[in-house]
Design goal:
Order of helices and strands: EHEHEHEHHHHHHHE
CATH class of the largest domain: Alpha Beta
CATH architecture of the largest domain: 3-Layer(aba) Sandwich
CATH superfamily of the largest domain: Response regulator
Radius of gyration: 21 Å
Pfam families: GerE (PF00196)
Organism: Ravibacter arvi
Largest sheet: 5 strands, parallel
Helix content: 40-55%
Number of helices: 10
Shape: elongated
Protein name: HTH luxR-type domain-containing protein
CATH topology of the largest domain: Rossmann fold
Keywords: DNA-binding
Oligomer: single chain
Strand content: 5-15%
Distance between the termini: 19 Å
Length: 206
Amino acid sequence: MQEVALTGFDKVREPAQVPGQGCDLVMLCLSQADPLDENVRQLRMVSGQYPEAKILVLETVRGLQTFRNLLAYLKLGVRGYVTAFDPLENIEHSIRKVLAGNRYVGEEALEWLLDHLANEEVATYLTANELDVARLLAEGRSVSRIARETNRKISTISTIKRSILRKTNVSNLLKLGEILSRQSDPELAGSGRRALSKKRLGRFQV
């Protein structure tokens, strides 16, 4: 790779008393086998050690939920993201993009991110009444039980349930529960809808 040099590598340690040596890019190797909290801690530590460097995460991932940590990393300022399963040429491409000042996630990761954000935002379209019923449904309550507990007609709750499923575009209550759970998690939800609007997603390179 032209004009790119490896200046060194090290394990993540506790924050040093003095800033790390200057560099343009840090590739941080993380693993989904470790808790997200630990990976976030390492990422914050590296950001503090190299405040001027762009950070590219290379993550060892697990099957079904390949990109589950991606949004958390992006919210912490990561400029690029690749996995250990990506071809070498994709990793090289990501380095060039990030060094050029762009953001980078692969095509599959970008598709997951768009789907995730779409699902995360759908609950914002629910009325307060619908949101209350949605939470009860996600907790496993039946329509008849919700009607009884809220002193409403079963037909009314059924109508609200249909509206919820239509607005959230989900086919089962398990998926609805996942969406509501993400929205209630301050670490993984709250600012995500503001920080990664569709306008900003246009800046990602694939």
